[in-house]
Amino acid sequence: MSPLWRDELGAYLSPYRLCLVRMKRGVRPTPVAEHEQRLEGVKGDSFGPALEAFAAMLAQSPWQGTATRVVIADHWARYAIVPWVAALGSAQERLAHGRQLLAGLYGEAVDGWDVRISEAPPGAARVVCAVPGELIAAVRAACAAHGSAILSLQPQLVAAYEAWRPSLPSSNAWFVSVEQGSLAAARFGRQGWDRVHGVRIGSDWMRELKRLQTFGRLASSSPQEGQVYVDAPHAWREVAAGTAGAAEASVLQWLEEPQGPMTTLQRLGRTRRLAA
Fold it and tell me: What is the assigned CATH class of domain 3-72+131-155?
């Protein structure tokens, strides 16, 4: 069977929930199954409950034997911007530089983590991201055990940004992805991301809205270039609409659901936003 027509599974793993969507592939991809499962009693940064739930679902119909795209919550991701250094001539040297920057920001917490660095043209900054190596290995093992080939494995901020990219301006704004317990933001310019932030959050929406405003002011001295585009759970948008003042409303752009056919990751993002 042609890869164009194979069904795809999208999976979102976070400390608090597991979301799955199966898409029937073709000229117009169509969702054929969705699943949302809340995870209770999670302690600290443990990813064991999410992995156990994921593996259990892969053993059941209709989730077996699919090509799989996995998104990992930003709760388990760490980011940094890697400035261009002309003296670094190889991909291995640039990756080592990215590891050093992550270690400087997060210390021993990222030792042994899986680290990846983005591609960029000469002179442009890159983005480096670290995710626990044990988490990545366990996801791969679960998929392999149930005949699921991994097509992609991305952290939430990266996957959400790519899914929303057609709805975003070309440069000079912030993109923010919010989930229970975490907020990650990237400022994108003409050559890609040039700033990135990740923070743990609570339930105080007014405080978090002011944090988003700050991201907008940092983006540019021009109000037209200081917009903040927000990927957030639907229920949280309703709360924000009732609490935001005029200043917040002029900066925050709450991204609306796309119309028409969706890719697997776009549909998975929609399921994530509706489930929270």
Answer: alpha beta
